[in-house]
Amino acid sequence: MLSARDLIPDVDVVLITLDSLRYDVADAALRLGETPHLAALLPGGAWEARHTPGSFTYAAHHAFLSGFLPTPARPGRHARLFAARFEGSTSTAARTFTFDEGTLPAAFAARGYRTVCVGGVGFFNGRTALGSALPALFHEAHWTAASGVQNPDGARVQMRVAAERLRAIPERVFLLMNVAATHTPTHFYVPGARRDSPDTQRAALRTVDAALPTLLDALRARGDTLLIVCADHGTCFGEDGYWGHRIAHPNVWTVPYAELLLRGRA
User: Fold this and answer.
1) Which among 209, 225, 237 has a CA at the least distance from the CA of 8?
2) What is the mean pLDDT of residues 8-31?
3) What confidence score (pLDDT) does residue 202 get?
4) What pLDDT, on a 0 to 100 scale, did the predictor assign at position 171?
5) With contact defined as beta carbons under 8 Å apart, do 223 and 11 qualify?
6) Residue 55: pLDDT over 80
7) How far is 79 from 250, CA to CA, in rounded Å?
8) Half-sphere exposure of residue 123, counting CA atoms within 13 Å on the CB side?
9) What is the mean pLDDT of the chain?
10) By the 8 A CB rule, do 16 and 229 touch?
11) How many other C-beta atoms lie within 10 A of the C-beta of residue 191?
12) How far apart, in whole angstroms, are the C-alpha atoms of residue 197 and residue 44?
């Protein structure tokens, strides 16, 4: 665990959520050499298996944005990277960034950060009251149909939007990027496929990896970044008769996770 308490407010903070990405899919893509840009970031060259606090996007992101990131998938008392201050917390340690505000965006805003959301799935589209609830936590939120789940080129669109905002903002940034490409539907990433599967999700992840340098270059140009890359939850593709998420299944609860200090070029 990095010392977020020592890093903030001297670094940008970026949380990339790869929506619905299963741990086994991410791990397979890594072992097959299909995600070289992610591989270069991962501490120890591997994804960490963690358990998500929510089985679907809205619940998981509400938890994340209150400081409850995925928990290591092993027994023990695990300190958190971020935590709202409250009496008796057993997951707050010396390296935890603690705050009195109710959400992470509010905490970063209070410390001079510009908070930015680049949305992907419908919970970030701003078209309804529900689709506006999470984006409303940020100074600015960006979503178009081109960044949503139906566009096979959505990852590239999202990375470009995020990079443009990073280049334009002079102050420190807290960025949430919800990447839609790995969320269903993913069958169109594999020619001839008619149904979503681990293979089609892996193909979608390859498009995310290919688009990633645009964002990384913009971050490195600004300086150092506390970077968290994880899934918000997984999903089922017929295992044990289950399809989708918002269910209690190991393929939903177990997610890939990485945290690192991305060094800037300065």
Assistant:
1) 225
2) 98
3) 98
4) 97
5) yes
6) yes
7) 23
8) 17
9) 96
10) yes
11) 7
12) 28
Pick from 79-88, 135-144, 226-235, 246-255: least confident: 79-88
Domain boundary assignment for the chain: 4-72+93-262
| Residue 177, pLDDT above cutoff 90 | yes
Tell me which amino acid residue 265 is: R
Provide DSSP, the chain.
---HHHHTTSSEEEEEEETT--HHHHHHHHHTT--HHHHHHSGGGSPEEEE-S-SSHHHHHHHHTTT-PPEESSSS----SEEE--TT-SS--TT-EEESSSSHHHHHHHTTPEEEEE--SGGGS-SSHHHHHTGGGSSEEE--GGGSTT-TTHHHHHHHHHHHHHHH--S-EEEEEEE-TTSSP-GGGSTT--S--HHHHHHHHHHHHHHHHHHHHHHHHH--EEEEEE-S---EESGGG-EESSS--HHHHEEEEEEEEEPP--
Whether 146 shows a pLDDT value over 90: the answer reads yes
Quick one: what percent of the chain has pLDDT higher than 90?
A: 95
**Rounded mean pLDDT, 213-232:** 98
Per-residue confidence (pLDDT) for residue 30, from 0 to 100: 98
Is the pLDDT at 266 greater than 70, yes or no?
no
Q: Which CATH number fits domain 4-72+93-262: 3.40.50.970, 3.40.720.10, 3.30.450.40, 3.40.1790.10?
A: 3.40.720.10
CA separation (Å) from 79 to 44, 68, 69, 71, 223? 20, 10, 11, 9, 26
